[in-house]
Amino acid sequence: CFFRKGKTPRRPPKKPSSNQKDPVGVYCRVRPLDADEKESCIEVISGSTIQLHAPDGLKANRNGEFKETQYSFKKVFGVAVSQIELFEEVARPLVADLIHGKNGLLFTYGVTGSGKTFTMTGCPGQGGLLPRSLDMIFNSVGPYQAKRYVFKTDDKNGMETQNEVDALLERQRRENQPSVPKTPSSKQKPEPEFGDMIKPEEACKADGVDEDSSYSVFVSYIEIYNNYIYDLLEEAPYDPIKPKWNGGGTPVRLNTESIPPQSKILREDQNHNMYVAGCTEVEVKSTEEAFEVFWRGQKKRRIANTQLNRESSRSHSVFIIKLAQAPLDADGNNILQDKSQVTVNQLCLVDLAGSERTSRTRAEGSRLREAGNINQSLMTLRTCIEVLRENQMCGTNKMVPYRDSKITHLFKNYFDGEGKVRMVVCVNPKAEDYEESLLVMRFAEMTQEVEVARPADRPICGFAAGRYQRNQERGGPVDRVINCLTNPHDDVTLPRLIEALEKRHRVRQMMIEEYNKAADMVKAMLQELDSSLISKDNFIHEQTSKLGEKEKVIHNYKSEIDRLEKKIKMQEHKIDILQKTTNIYEEDKRSLQVELETRGQRLQRELCEKRRMEQRMQGMVTDTQIKWEKECTATPVRPLHRRSRSAGGEKWVDHKPASSLELDTVLQPIIPNAIKVSVPSEKVLSKCDKYVLTHQEVASDGEIQTKLIKGEVIKTRGGGQAVQFTDVETLKQELTTGPSRKRRSSEGSPNQGKERTDGDWTDVETRCSVALEMRAGSNMGPGYEHHGYPKRRKP
């Protein structure tokens, strides 16, 4: 048969965290200067503020570019602060939250040689945050710890429980396995004991521990080296034939086992929490045992000697403390065998490798590669913090690049709201670390602005509280008494056992009676609740029917409202159309009114212009008449020819000019009804500037028309003389003795048939450009040019 490849099943949704958010707690610790160092670039201003000032040499080199800057933290710890004070302020609240069912993350950050490892681990007599956290955990839950192997890991970041018998068998099976031989080492430092780390008077414990639960502590220790995860608690067989070398020239305290450790991978469990798959988790029952396990892994951690630090951490170390908790059963004797009731919380203590500049460390080979990976992982951490800050402050939803580095990918759940996050910034006040410290301060200041969702409280078990205390008052489990029986003829233990059993039997009988009474009361209450529930169901049914009727009425009303709204919209649409039409008509009306007013004004202007033109023309006619009368009077020119009409037809009459000018050539007619005129010779024209021709004729209606043709004498190109006629004027006069005749003209006259009195003259102004050019020396005689004809207008 064939199987279809199905889609990857969707994971269950992540449990919602609380809406409340807490900022990342950032603390600052200043380490003291060494004996050979005098200049300090960091000054503690107050309990929450420090000030950085550039050293003198740096100011001289950069012309005073660096100014004094101040940075604020949740709290600043000066050089005189002890380890216990630092623990009380920073780590103790995280340990208390771990015991009460909440996760926590604490990491140290700073440049190389700033005291991060000392702050986390400490030294004999000055235990750091890690051993003090272990001491507080076991001081708090020590009396309530389960037996070894009752809690068992399931290799999927979860815990399972088993009864004490199975736990005992598991213990025997593991003890019978051959132990892995430890790696021989010729040069090993003596392991410090936990008793030397913390003084007895500095021990502390948490308040409010749940006595009705059983606890178990598991620890694991990993390191992230060159962006690979290694298990520091993993035991590998030793092969003396193939010794392992570190591959570098600088002596390094590495794991001397022959087989190199295998890198681990990160996985995500069913609750979307990241964990290291295949990591060794050791169950510890005391602070000393836990610290011994830690020191066993610490010896395998990669540490190298550099120019800046004699024991410089070349990897990020992560010490994980898991606290498994399960409630006791109703009797308070054994752990409840229910995996869903088991809760696992963890506290991660991270010692980050210090950032360093290769120009100062002068690293080469593997040291240079290690420094590059360390700086790259710290840069990824900075980028994740920046994106988180931008998403929270600007409301964006950018993807946080957790997967770019193993250290950020492992702890991404903490920044998503799976626990509290705190950071201790370690700084070295020496002048050489000023620039690196400045970058660390900026990163710390930015980290304080990131808020992490507060984790939700765990659900409370349904059993009554005080089960453990009642069980202790009853004498505790009988198994403890049975274990004390070594002699069957013991007269002291057997009576005590019989008394304890009788007491337990009486208590059991009392509890059974109380249980029966309580069961009867619960049954009665259930019956009452059933009856009230039935009555409420009936009431709800009635109300539901009424509600259905109301909903029908509401539906009808909604339908009517919808119909009316549609009608209203239609009427509003019509009103809009009518309004637009009205606006168009009003606009047309206004435009027509404006046009009417404009045309009226134009008509008035035209009338005024017409009246002014008439007045002007009348004045011009009068002036022209007077002018030409004066010119005609001043110029002694008489008509050359007269054409008269008679009954027999037209005849031409020749006249001599009054100035006795010689006429050489006959001029062709240049206007209608023109007579023949004589043109003076070139000799005569050379003595004149102006020339006037007069032409008179008698029309059939008895009018005498006199035409005055005026011109100027100009020189030609050939050296001759020419007359250029410019104006023609016509004067009309009616005869007093002759009969009244009608004027025959092709244009017609509006005054035909009307008689005129003697002395009435009509002046029609007709202007043209007529040029007559006469050239001397031509075979044809003096010629002429005709550029147009005068246009006659109606009288």
Automatic annotation (TrEMBL):
GO biological process: one example: microtubule-based movement
PROSITE patterns per the UniProt record, alphabetical: KINESIN_MOTOR_2
Positions contributing to ATP binding: 110-117
Subcellular localization(s) per the UniProt record: Cytoplasm, Cytoskeleton, Spindle; Midbody, Midbody ring; Nucleus
Residue stretches making up the Kinesin motor domain: 23-450
A GO term from the CC aspect: Flemming body
Compositionally biased spans, kind Basic residues: 1-14
Superkingdom: Eukaryota
Coiled coil: 512-581
Polar residues composition bias: residue spans: 177-187
GO MF terms, alphabetically ordered: ATP binding; ATP hydrolysis activity; microtubule binding; microtubule motor activity
Region (Disordered): 1-24, 169-195, 734-795
Alphabetized Gene3D superfamilies for the sequence: Kinesin motor domain, Kinesin-like protein Kif23, Arf6-interacting domain
Annotated InterPro entries: Kif23_Arf-bd (IPR032384), Kif23_Arf-bd_sf (IPR038105), Kinesin-like_fam (IPR027640), Kinesin_motor_dom (IPR001752), Kinesin_motor_dom_sf (IPR036961), P-loop_NTPase (IPR027417)
Keyword annotations from UniProtKB, A to Z: ATP-binding, Cell cycle, Cell division, Coiled coil, Cytoplasm, Cytoskeleton, Isopeptide bond, Microtubule, Mitosis, Motor protein, Nucleotide-binding, Nucleus, Phosphoprotein, Ubl conjugation
Family: Belongs to the TRAFAC class myosin-kinesin ATPase superfamily. Kinesin family.
PANTHER family: KINESIN-LIKE PROTEIN KIF23 (PTHR24115:SF600), KINESIN-RELATED (PTHR24115)
Role description: Component of the centralspindlin complex that serves as a microtubule-dependent and Rho-mediated signaling required for the myosin contractile ring formation during the cell cycle cytokinesis. Essential for cytokinesis in Rho-mediated signaling. Required for the localization of ECT2 to the central spindle. Plus-end-directed motor enzyme that moves antiparallel microtubules in vitro.
Subunit structure: Heterotetramer of two molecules each of RACGAP1 and KIF23. Found in the centralspindlin complex. Interacts with RACGAP1; the interaction is direct. Interacts with ECT2 and PRC1. Interacts with ANXA11 during cytokinesis. Interacts with BIRC6/bruce and USP8/UBPY. Interacts with ARF6, forming heterodimers and heterotetramers.
UniProt name for this protein: Kinesin-like protein KIF23
Species per Swiss-Prot/TrEMBL record: Myripristis murdjan (pinecone soldierfish)
Lineage, uppermost ranks: Eukaryota, Metazoa, Chordata, Craniata, Vertebrata
